[in-house]
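Input record (one chain):
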Amino acid sequence: MNAKRAKTPKNSATKLFVLDTNVLMHDPLSLFRFEEHDIYVPMMTLEELDANKKGMSEVARNARQTSRLLDEIVTGAEHNMAKGIDLTGPSRALATGRLFLQTEAINGILPSSLPTAKADNQIIGVVMYLGQKFPKRPVILVTKDINMRIKARALGLEAQDYFNDKVLEDTDLLYTGTLELPPDFWDSHGKGLESWKKESRTYYRIKGPLCPDLLVNEFVWQEGPQPLQAWVKVGSGRTAELETIIDYSHAKNAVWGITARNREQNFALNLLMNPDIDFVTLLGQAGTGKTLLTLAAALTQTLETKLFAEIIITRVTVPVGEDIGFLPGTEEEKMTPWMGALEDNLEVLNKPAETPTGGPAAGAGSYGGDWGRAATMDLIRNRIKIKSLNFMRGRTFMNKFLIIDEAQNLTPKQMKTLITRAGPGTKVVCLGNIAQIDTPYLTEGSSGLTYVVDRFKGWSHSGHVTLQRGERSRLADHAAEVL
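The corresponding structure, as predicted from the sequence alone:
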């Protein structure tokens, strides 16, 4: 394509983005995410897509979807290749730029220190060539490969990460689900205050400057002489309704022998034990009690109140160290090594009680001795199913308590696949720590967990709490601080 032709009639300041393969394999629809700007796909990107199309992994599926999209765009536009293919039609007006495919050989551009056999270097060569061909136009390499961005910048080229799927630029801005009320809250919101009681709960209807910002199922609290812990039942308007919460830190409200040790745990148990809440997300560092609270609530509602038929636990099988090879056995047995956290928490929940008035699990342990504990453990295990993510497509879970552990390692697409499995009567709980992402190319801003927390906030049947305090041991707390 010559320089005159390539400049579209639009403003010449429209950018030309050169796409690396990993961007297309991360999000096939990235082809339509550059609005009025043009995109350029090097031949090496197409070669790498071809090399990665085989298999059943998420990456292979995305490579195939990208190829299908490109095929749809290019079909019938063969004569326009040099001018670029208008994306307005194929993208249904999401993008108004043009798509250029590499139609000529580009050689001798790279410095001799960069071996041309490497695909990344060939793509960098294409960016250098385009930069020389269109000196007045911004030519930008888009890649999720950090090393490739460093190399491009070292050669004086502009390179960027693919930001479109990032929910937030700064995860400090992520919704925490809790809000401390200012000291003058009742003075500024007390005018025309209405209050009533219903089923041992107190309700407040308030008006004031904070009301438009209060989201449904957001927890509000205040320390002081008259402490308050409540959650918002009606929000985002001129008035808001607050409902006081159940105090799970008191032994009489213990859930499977577990009581809340801090404010956030109390909020989390209110979400986990409320039958009107279908979707719960719990974020927190290691040792904040995410899994323990969730399992305690799940066992109580499955074995005692019989609200759910069984508990299903799944997690992404990303090893922290080296992989341990192929594991023998059934799906359940293969998943067992990944479920060490589950075993540890079941031991805590099935411990013998110190007092005969302990929780239900404690009772089972204390009356029957070791035999009773073993029988209880078998009963519990029969109600807990461990499933692999690989076999979730097409399933529907009815009346199940679905726990998605280590959810920060899921992409938004995988998260959608899992949450849409929920049938009538199913509750979905996502647990994770966005500071511990083990999946390549996922960041705190683009993790599926961050995505669902942001998208679900303010829905009347979902809730979120970020757990702050570690409750493991003084050793674990100190290690989390200093290491």
